[in-house]
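Task: sequence design from structure.
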């Protein structure tokens, strides 16, 4: 091997050393020794506690819901189920209880809970942290303020959000106190008209009234639920071992399927609290057993 060959080998070796040194230098700059970054979707403390809605911007929440949620959900009162269920009146609603929607198994495990602020916050942060096999293929909303705004908007379209889901204290509709809406005779007349509009197609209301699609409602107030012998009730009502108090009537008229899931009354309910009060006042006037 002559001197020319030795020179070539020396140059090649020097070039290799330079390449290795340059690679090490560049790598040490680009790939530094860092602590792994925590995922923004990990469930942390602020996602696990109830959040304060006082800072919420409902208008922004509505915009965010339209941008991020409307592909799969509707928000209007009679909105259809899409890929996900309709979200009108979702706040305070029992989880996985919307009729005619097929929920995932892990979401059904939460059906003893309601969609309160805390649960909505965890769900919106990362649905799979709340229900591991959910069919909602959505990564979540990482910004807590955005979640606050969306939750406030959902609350604004949830008329029953502030109402407890358990049975309310029974306060007689005709209790006399100053300013009571029930002292106004006009409401009783309105109640009769609204009963005819919302209820009469399925129910009679006279002392000898016939059973129609539903039972006769004469003398219904404070009567045991599912107790008329000439009517076949659904199992969902038979298990209600209580009376038709004003509170129970109000919840039933508002949303029959929410109050007794699986009953055979195919009716969406009456969303207006004033109309429900008027109808119940009219039923009260037909219930002599309840008058003292």
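Answer:
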């Amino acid at each position: 091997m002559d001197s020319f060959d030795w020179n070539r080998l020396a140059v090649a070796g020097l070039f290799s050393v330079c390449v290795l040194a340059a690679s090490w230098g560049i790598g040490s700059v680009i790939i530094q020794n860092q602590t792994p970054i925590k995922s923004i979707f990990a469930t942390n403390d602020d996602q696990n506690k109830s959040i304060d809605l006082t800072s919420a911007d409902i208008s922004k929440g509505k915009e965010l819901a339209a941008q991020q949620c409307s592909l799969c959900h509707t928000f209007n009162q009679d909105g259809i189920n899409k890929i996900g269920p309709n979200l009108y009146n979702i706040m305070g609603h029992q989880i996985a209880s919307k009729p005619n929607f097929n929920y995932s198994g892990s979401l059904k495990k939460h059906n003893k809970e309601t969609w309160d602020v805390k649960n909505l916050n965890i769900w919106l942060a990362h649905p799979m942290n709340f229900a591991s096999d959910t069919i909602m293929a959505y990564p979540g909303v990482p910004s807590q303020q955005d979640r606050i705004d969306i939750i406030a908007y959902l609350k604004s379209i949830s008329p029953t959000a502030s109402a407890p889901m358990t049975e309310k204290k029974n306060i007689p509709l005709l209790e006399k106190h100053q300013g009571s809406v029930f002292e106004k005779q006009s409401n009783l007349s309105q109640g009769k008209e609204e009963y005819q509009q919302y209820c009469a197609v399925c129910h009679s209301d006279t002392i000898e009234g016939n059973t129609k699609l539903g039972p006769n409602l004469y003398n219904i107030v404070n009567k045991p639920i599912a107790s008329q012998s000439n009517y076949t009730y659904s199992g969902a009502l038979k298990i209600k071992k209580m009376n038709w108090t004003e509170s129970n009537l109000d919840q039933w008229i508002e949303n029959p399927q929410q109050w007794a899931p699986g009953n055979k009354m195919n009716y969406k309910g009456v969303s207006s609290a004033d109309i429900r009060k008027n109808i119940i006042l009219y039923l009260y006037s037909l219930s002599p057993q309840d008058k003292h």
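The first helix runs from residue 3 to 30.
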